[in-house]
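Re-run with default settings, no changes from the original entry. Doing this only to confirm the output is reproducible before filing.
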Amino acid sequence: MADASTAPGSRDVVVIGAGPAGLSAALVLGRARRSVTVVDAGSPRNACSPAVHGFLTRDGSTPADFLAAARQEVSGYGVELVADEASAVVVVEDPTAPTLRVELAGGRRLRARRVVVASGIVDELPDVAGLAERWGRDVLHCPYCHGYEVRDRPLVVLADSIEGTVHQALLLRQWTEDVTVVVHDAGPVDEDDATLLAARGVRVVPGQAREVVDGEDGPVAVVLADGPRVEGGAVFVAPRFRLNSAVLDGLGARTVTGDMGTALETDDEGRTSVPGVWAAGNVVDLSCQVLGAAELGARAAIGINGELALVDAHAAREAAQRRQ
């Protein structure tokens, strides 16, 4: 139930994004009897993947089934689900009103005491013809998400940076003995990395990738600019990750940049540098999988509920003192 301090027509929390992080936050907050609205445009990042893996009790579920089950669960606790895109979060200066306003592409405006940004990230893939069309099927990025499904096949790693490629290739040796690195945009492999790869039987093929096509001896092949083909059971890449967080434009939330891309900076509970705005999931941790994203959503929800409980208690004490 909404607290008495929540103004009419507003809610305690608006969650932006209905992936595992956003829905996990909504579930915890709904069970805490907070008024919650989840806003989502319906374009999950993992929609192209055939299954969710590594999530206890849901391993092998399709992304659509996983999200349908999650939506049903949160709806049972009174959480409102809105099919729309959040276009902006605006700080409301009126001290008597909720602190934030979320503007939707469809024109609706939502007022909230707190906002959780769980809008996820966008994969920026190498610019190679045919690669994007196979993304999530024969072109993959996470060994822990997909390695078991392509075990014992010949795997091709399309290099973008040497450090990330060497790590990915050595990881993939856990699932197959046949790994080939196509150097592509990574530049020369130094002696130390070359000896590591050679020790694990990983082949290194120089040359620029021109196209990813149907394979002759397997599902897929990488065609090099000078003509040769490298056949494989799947191709692994290391995309850069871009925040799907245009909704925060103008708020000035601090970010942190690493090897994989830029993420929102938060404290351990999920608070961003913008008062009242929290974040969870891949916008905070670019590498987290479905289970990790859900945990970050739950952690943010617990932090928000604790913070609001304290705010409500202070407001109740001040109201009682005024009545005396």
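The chain has two domains: 10-123+240-323, 126-236. The mean pLDDT is 92.
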